[in-house]
Amino acid sequence: MKDTFQERSIALYCRVSTDEQAREGISLDEQQERLKAYCRAMGWSEEPLLFIDDGYSAKNLDRPELNRLLKEVKKGTISKILVTKLDRLSRRLLDLLKLIDMFQEHNVSFISISESFDTNTPSGRLTLQVLGAVAEFERERIRERVFENMLHAARQGKWLTQSPYGYRLQNKELVIYEPEAQIVRNVYDWYLNKGLGYYAIAKKLNEEGIPSRQKKEWSIRAIKLMLTNPVYKGTLFWNRMDSSKSKRVKKDDADWVVLEDACPAIIDQATWEQVQKRVNKKQMAPRAQTSPHLLGGLLKCGRCGSGMSIGWSGSAKNRYRVYRCSANKNKGTCTSKQYRADDVESWFKHGLLKLADSINSQMIPHLIQKAAENEESTIEQKIRTAKNRYKRKVEAYTAGLIELEDLNEEKKRMEQIIAEVQKTENASSVDVKKLEAMVKEKMNNVIDAIDVLPVPEAKSLIKTIVEKVILLDEKDIEIVLNIQ
């Protein structure tokens, strides 16, 4: 079997900078002669290829002849690379290891004759492993220093990356950029008050010719990121994601850096919280949102609770739309019958009118109770999260991983969250008349829109006030309101 190394060429790499030649008397001719003599001593009779960089520093790898050598390595034409000393290739250990990794990937031996370093021998590979361990330690120390500096800057309220849409950076601090900030406000309003979803908002912005920061079209992902970014309520979050691995993962929330009121807010706190409630609620399928049928995605079967899908019935000359229980249609597990869609939508409109007329001060306590139950669950979650964060910080302090100052900061943060929650609970008295007026206004807007707007737009408005519609029987429907 032929030795594949012998079918390829030996490369001699020589380098000298002007300063080195003047200071140390290192010449290119001397390097070439020593390398050729080594080849003769090893019995390698073939004529080697020369790669000579004259007057180039080893501080970086951007050198003409080195670049040409690396191209030949990638082509597979080189078997061995010889240098007189390791620093001829690079003076930086990390760069040196990076090049050696490439050589090994292409089955190329690397030999430095002064240090008796040959990656094709056991001792050479051992030396390489030691150098690699030192380099890894150096990388970790650099990473630690960078992290500590960035952590300090973040705690001072400095913004550490590219400014988000709606802001500009001045002295590493965020300032509102009004032309974009107004777009952010519009997006929050369309999502919360107009009932538009991510897709509909992205489409609307693109149709209006409003570019994103990168001058590209808006996407569903970009809209969701905007609606969930806490910076818009003035909160700075940093160190949430671990980017050291190939796939970014969310870190434990105890490791996050969180600063409230760290930058000017574009969206008020109450609006941002309401948007998060809707974001975290199970969303209607995109297909249902754009369905040309008024109750698509909203209508539920009164017998089994499954969604009711649209279909067609009747003869070829007399086809009509019907709503049918999905469990009945797909599984046969429900005995619900199908209903004419026009009839169901008519019952819904009539029921919504009756509901709007009957909204009064007596119904409001029921709505308040429902909202309070949701709010109580949210409050408990906030307190539980804050206490868990503090508990983990105590464990980290006990293990000597953080300083007492960090622990005290976390304690203050937990106490602040609990105090704000208690303040909210104490001020939880509701203006019944104001809530009644708000509910009536929303319902009247929906009623007015149903027969005027296209179905997808009317449905978006319906979703701002109606959580679901339950079809119990002929002319018997239940409308569940969604009051935030």
UniProtKB/TrEMBL annotation:
<dbReference type="Pfam" id="PF00239">
    <property type="entry name" value="Resolvase"/>
</dbReference>
<dbReference type="Pfam" id="PF13408">
    <property type="entry name" value="Zn_ribbon_recom"/>
</dbReference>
<dbReference type="GO" id="GO:0003677">
    <property type="term" value="F:DNA binding"/>
</dbReference>
<protein>
    <submittedName>
        <fullName>Cassette chromosome recombinase B</fullName>
    </submittedName>
</protein>
<feature type="coiled-coil region">
    <location>
        <begin position="369"/>
        <end position="427"/>
    </location>
</feature>
<keyword id="KW-0233">DNA recombination</keyword>
<dbReference type="InterPro" id="IPR050639">
    <property type="entry name" value="SSR_resolvase"/>
</dbReference>
<feature type="domain" description="Resolvase/invertase-type recombinase catalytic">
    <location>
        <begin position="9"/>
        <end position="157"/>
    </location>
</feature>
<feature type="domain" description="Recombinase">
    <location>
        <begin position="164"/>
        <end position="285"/>
    </location>
</feature>
<keyword id="KW-0229">DNA integration</keyword>
<dbReference type="InterPro" id="IPR036162">
    <property type="entry name" value="Resolvase-like_N_sf"/>
</dbReference>
<dbReference type="InterPro" id="IPR038109">
    <property type="entry name" value="DNA_bind_recomb_sf"/>
</dbReference>
<dbReference type="InterPro" id="IPR006118">
    <property type="entry name" value="Recombinase_CS"/>
</dbReference>
<dbReference type="InterPro" id="IPR006119">
    <property type="entry name" value="Resolv_N"/>
</dbReference>
<dbReference type="GO" id="GO:0000150">
    <property type="term" value="F:DNA strand exchange activity"/>
</dbReference>
<feature type="active site" description="O-(5'-phospho-DNA)-serine intermediate">
    <location>
        <position position="17"/>
    </location>
</feature>
<keyword id="KW-0238">DNA-binding</keyword>
<dbReference type="Pfam" id="PF07508">
    <property type="entry name" value="Recombinase"/>
</dbReference>
<dbReference type="InterPro" id="IPR025827">
    <property type="entry name" value="Zn_ribbon_recom_dom"/>
</dbReference>
<keyword id="KW-0175">Coiled coil</keyword>
<dbReference type="InterPro" id="IPR011109">
    <property type="entry name" value="DNA_bind_recombinase_dom"/>
</dbReference>
<dbReference type="GO" id="GO:0015074">
    <property type="term" value="P:DNA integration"/>
</dbReference>
